[in-house]
Amino acid sequence: MRHHHLSKALFFFLLVLFSSPLIGQKAYSVTEIPDPKKTNGGWVSNPDGILSSGDVASINDTISNFERKTNVQVAVVIVNDFDPEQEDFDFAYTLFNTWGIGQKTSNNGVLLFIAKDRRKYRFITGTGAEGVLPDVKLKHIAEQNLLPAFRKNDYGTGIINTLNAMGTIILNTDNKSELNQFFTQRGYNSNLDKVWLPAIAICLAFFGLFKLLGRYPVKQVKPGKGNKILQRSAPNIGCAVMVFTTIFAGIISIIAGGFGWFKNIPLSVLPYILATILGICLFFRYIFLIEHIRSSYHDDENFSNAVTSFHKKYGWMMLFSPLIIFVVIRQFFRKAEGNKRFKPVLDSRQQPMVRLDRDENIEGTPFLTKGQRKEEMMKVYDYDIWQSVDQKEHIIKEWPAEKYNHFAACPSCGFRTYESDKQVTVKAATYSHDGQAKVVNECSFCKHVEFISWVTLAMLVKESSGGTSGSSSSGSSSSSSSWGGGSSSGGGSGGSW
User: Fold this and answer.
1) Which of 63, 76, 46 is nearest to 166 (CA)?
2) What's the predicted TM-score (pTM) here?
3) How many CB atoms lie within 10 A of CB 21?
């Protein structure tokens, strides 16, 4: 009886001893497989440490060379075991699409999934890689390179030999042009209706908007000719803006592409980016035209009416450039303030007076003095001149203009044309000696000057042209923290050893 109990205990001990590795072994789900792009920026997921660090480094270098020369992305995943409820194809296929291996526009990814304990391997290819690495070819590569090494438990050698065999195909100079053409053409065809056609339509739509704005007629007042009006069109810079935007965007794309800035941005957002850029250009074109209208009117009321008319005609463009709504709102409040300013003044008989049109009488003669006209020219005051109907009475009302706070009343002439702390250069600085300037308070009308102090101008210094170029080239391994967003329709091959 005692011997029986000892035998039973020994059997239990041996059972626990040999089954403990199996008890502690993990069967991974898809979400539990470590993504190498997020952990170390590499291409190999080796959570159970089956591959040595040297093998992992060699595999990373090989795959990085693939991506650099052909744009192909290859992922290698090797684990002891995975979800027992799934077959190797279903697991690998789900893992491929979960990570998004390969570029989104070309779907040029390849996954090599290996389950050591089940003695299973599986290739999954993106739809853009199937033409270059068909299922039959991958099956042949595995039988010649992967399986012989795996049967000897030499997993690192088997994977490296397999990748080298794949590289012989995709890096071959005879296949390179076909490979690149295949990827480019597939990406183009798949995005023609979703990306390029909308982008072209957006460009044409904004081209029409720029042309429409360019034909808006602006009345230009000739300086010194109060009663003569010249009718001309605003400068048509819409085409120039679009050409400049296209060239600028092209240069930025080339630079950004070299640094990989746009690598993770899907091509499908291109129409939205293009619409945003052109919408901003349309906004600046819109306010440029308003500023052009401003330069065409001396009279503030006429300018306000012209801008209101412009908004009524073209305000609908805010549908293409929402920023325009802020310009429309600003004009609404300015119009409300102007209604108070331009409300008729009453004369001594309590009769409404008539405001002098400053586009008809720019100088405001004979009502304004030279000092008042100087204040207008310096944008300190806007003067409204009101006359009675019989022209026997007039009233002048002043309104602070844009640069009212930049000047003070002159102690000599009394007009608000006195500028404080104005720096006047007496001797310019050069590369060999200092310069000198004086600080004064000066009236732009009567030329009254009050000296404040002398100032030394620092000698000019030549800037050194020898800067560091910082031309650091990228290493052999990818530094991107994510895959390209590719997908697979189930192509590939697999088997066991």
Assistant:
1) 63
2) 0.49
3) 9
